Amino acid sequence: MKIDTPLKPIIKPSTIELPNAYEAEKALLSALFLDNSKIGQALEYITHEHFYDKRNALIFKSMLSLYSQGIAFDHIIIANHLGSQLETIGGMDYLIEVTEYLPNVSNITYYAKIIYQKSILRELIFASQEITDNCYADTLNTEEILNLAEKKIFNISTKKTESYKSLNDIGDEIRDLIQNLKQRDTVVTGLPTGFIDIDKLLNGFQRSDLIILAARPSMGKTAFAVNIATNMATRGNFSVGIFSLEMTYRQIAMRILSSMSDIAFYKIKSGKLSTKEWDLIVKTIDQTRNMRIYIDDSSLITSLDIRTKARKLKIERNIDFLIIDYLQLIEGLKRENRVQEVSEISRSLKILAKELNIPILALSQLNRGVEQRDNKRPMMSDLRESGSIEQDADIVMFIYRDDVYNKKSQTNEERTTAEINIAKHRNGPTGTIQLLFHKDTTTFKNLTDKQELDVFYKNYVSEHEEF
């Protein structure tokens, strides 16, 4: 069959009324006339913007204004407060109609939820119409439209009734938080990395932070990131996402097993294990079953793919922390050069960290320029050829192991020393931390003894809810 004209989407005609909760709106207002103090319960779910009927929105807004001033209200007080807007809502007749609705005051929360849910449905309709319009307009490319669509739906699904807080609102909250922190034994206010000297310096990884972990190949970037993930999942029972663009999920899982069991990675990979080692592996696997680490090794090629999967993980698994390995393997929007693309990617990751309200650790590979100088320790200037990574990051960490370059440092010892240089810390001090690196298990470990670690982190599991 020949089609002469392009197919158009089936759109509901404008004569069909949008989803609404007209009866619930009237019931809620009437209940608030009966008991002004219940307005706080309603505010947990809605503001005046969630009302479909503009008359009801004006009444609710007036109620809130009076209540915030400590003024009790009834329909006469509301009428006086509305002033010239009284006629807009239908005059005193409509106010009396609302007061005579006779709802059940105990159902206020239920009414508010219905109003909120219908408001969400309307927002979805408006968002879908905007997405449709963009598809027809042909002014944005496909990736931009997909990102816009995802962001709109994600924002609707996680929307809160309040987008701002005044200092007056948060003063008591901050005071209580600081007092609580003051009384605690631990100094970690964010997510613990499990490396005591790093946690002392950074206070853990904080919400919405973008952390860059940079090094030359073979320094142990992935190993260090996986160690942090393991520490978070075991010490704090945090939910961690790992997006691996380089290694498979099996390789990462084997690294975790090697680290936790202290059995050499090459033995696990080859399967050449003694009976004792095999029993230990089985025991360790059982220990990992309750660890909330989620690995995605699929072809996450573009920054859009990263954002899509991250939002999905946040909704489905409520991840507290995300690792991306590694930044230079991500494709951005096609720009004039790769530096601009990397800049766009790092900015998008910072925005994503803020959007999901979690710290994101992005691994970054440094170029060969590091090896052209005598002192091969990475510096901040080594990042400047990688776009705006340095500016976008809240924390920048470099890994350096002297044994990789210096033959005098190379020994047959399984353990070597590693330096973690915290070169940028937007909200605090910087410095270099010494760790042990176990080559056989590709594991970074503290120089501190276990007893001190246990004391330092002892209260963390029960007290990390502030994060």
CATH topology (fold) name of the largest domain: Rossmann fold
Using DSSP, what is the number of strands? Answer: 9
Helix content range of the residues, please?
A: 40-55%
Give unreliable regions as ranges.
Answer: 1-8, 461-467
Strand content: 5-15%
Average pLDDT level: 82
CATH class of the largest domain: Alpha Beta
* CATH architect. name of the largest domain: 3-Layer(aba) Sandwich
Number of domains: 2
- Helix-strand string: HHHHHHHHHEHEHHHEHEHEHEHEEEHH
Structural class: alpha/beta
The total count of helices amounts to 19
The oligomeric status of these chains comes to: single chain
Keywords: ATP-binding, DNA replication, DNA-binding, Helicase, Hydrolase, Isomerase, Nucleotide-binding, Primosome
Pfam family, one: DnaB_C
Protein name: Replicative DNA helicase
GO molecular function, one term: identical protein binding
